[in-house]
Each structure stands twice: as structure tokens, then as C-alpha cells.
Amino acid sequence: MSPIRTFPELFPGFHWQDIEVEGVRIRMAIGGKGPPLLLLHGYPQMHLTWHKVAPTLAEHFTVVAPDLRGYGDSAKPEGGVNLANYSKRATAADQVGVMKALGFKRFRVVGHDRGGRVAHRMALDAPEAVEKLVVIDIAPTATMYARTNMEFARSCFWWFFLIQPYPLPEKLIDGDPDFFLENHIAGQIKIPGSVDPRVMAEYRRCYADPAMRHAGCEDYRAAAGIDLVHDAADADKRIQAPLLALWGARGTVGALYDVVETWREKGMDVRGYPIDCGHSPQEEAPEELLKRLEEFL
Known about the structure:
Blueprint: E1 15-21, E2 24-32, E3 36-40, H1 54-57, E4 62-66, H2 88-101, E5 107-112, H3 114-125, E6 130-136, H4 141-146, H5 150-155, H6 158-161, H7 168-174, H8 177-188, H9 197-207, H10 210-223, H11 226-233, E7 243-248, H12 252-256, H13 259-264, E8 270-275, H14 281-284, H15 286-296
Parallel strand pairs: 3-4, 3-5, 5-6, 6-7, 7-8
Antiparallel strand pairs: 1-2, 2-4
Helix pairs in contact: 2-3, 7-10, 8-9
């Protein structure tokens, strides 16, 4: 195995390590002191997306920022039967296992994009582990598919492109992965220049791996399949942990949904606020995001 990559200039005071959970290796950055806080990234990023907020959060929390299975430098298993290995249930179980291995049985969790969907499933499957929950720029997966309209299809075409049967999306993206990656991120960022060039270089490095591109498709395929089965089975379950929903005021989610109300359909204690940015407040509006996180956490 190649040496673990570290980024002390982006995550000062952190260290990096791998933890294996049920045969799946998870790469993470860890730093700070205080109560445990788990940060979960989205597609097509990896843990470095948190670099503008993690060092400040580490002043008050022990921050754990992993690469989700299939992403970054974490393992990329095969999809398995019904893509169960990329279900949010499996990905959430990874992260509960990581936190237990680090000695944390109960923790706060913040999830952006796909990471928010993992956190949602975690709060249902492991309520004893989740003390507080923050979801960033998402409505619940089942809600978004059920309420699909032309505006959603145009704004978030990849929800329908990446779920196409293997190998169609993989082959098409293979033609120019950098072009797809950079256009995907640029289309969601509403404050130009928000993505640090060093971080974008790492996004490109990771996305250059065909295994990550395939895993990302499997993640979306699972969301349109087995995840909806799990969500339907838990339709009457409610998230017990206090939940904060944040979203980009200039983005698609806030334009299409009453974000707080969609989460009140899923949780017992829900509040939420817009942030003046696009899809990625951790990169576009870190100071405002930190303010909201520190108030809630």
C-alpha cells in the first residue's frame, strides 16, 4: 500500500490514518479536542472539502473527516447484490464503525450532499450513536425522486445520468474525466473562486481513478434502488436527534423545496436556515456555515 497522503497546510494540527471496518478501509483526517464531530462529504469530493471549517471546529471538537467508501483514498468495493455495498445503510455503518474504533460511541454528525444522505440513514439505523445531525443542501432522497419535475431534471441531470446501467455513464465520463468533474463542481458553485486550487487538484487526482468514477455511479444507482427500498420500509420512522438543515440560498434545493418542512416530515426536532451561496457552503461561505454550526452543535 502506498504511503498515506497528508495535507498539513490545509488541515493544520490533524493527522491521517486508515481504519478497516468489516473489511472496508476508510481513510480519514483527525484533529482537535473535545466532543467528537463527524464530517461527511458529498459527490464528487472527498474529505478536503472541509478544509476551511475543520480547523476552527477542531478548537472545540475532536473532528473526524473521512473519505466515504468509494471516494477519495478509501476502499472501493464491488457493488454486490442489489448494490447493497453502496447503500447508504452500508456507508453509514462504515462511519459508525470508524467512530467506535476511535472510542466514540456517540457523536455529532454533519453531512453535505451524499454525506447528508449517509447521515440521514445513520440517524435511523444507529440512533444511539447520533447526538445531533446537520444536513447541508439536500432534501430527503425519496422526497426528491417522488417530486421530480422538469426544473429538477434540468438542474440535477446527473441524478438520472449516473444511475444508467453500467457501463454507459462510466464510458462517457472516461472520455474526459476532468471536464466532467470540473463542470459538475462549477455548475453548483455560485461564488466563483471558492474552491482552493490545491483542493481541486486533489479532487482531480481522486477522480482520475476509474474505480472512483465507477463507485460514484454505484452510489447514485443505489440511491435510486436499494436506498428507496430502505426508505419505504422506514417511512414511519422519525429521526430522534435534533436536526439542523442548511442550504444554499442561490442553489437548486432551496429553490425547489421548503427544506425545513421536508425534514420535519422525517424528524422530531428540526430547524433550518439558508446560507448565501450555492451548493457547497463549506467552500463558498465558511464563516456563515461555522456560525450556524457552532450555534447548533
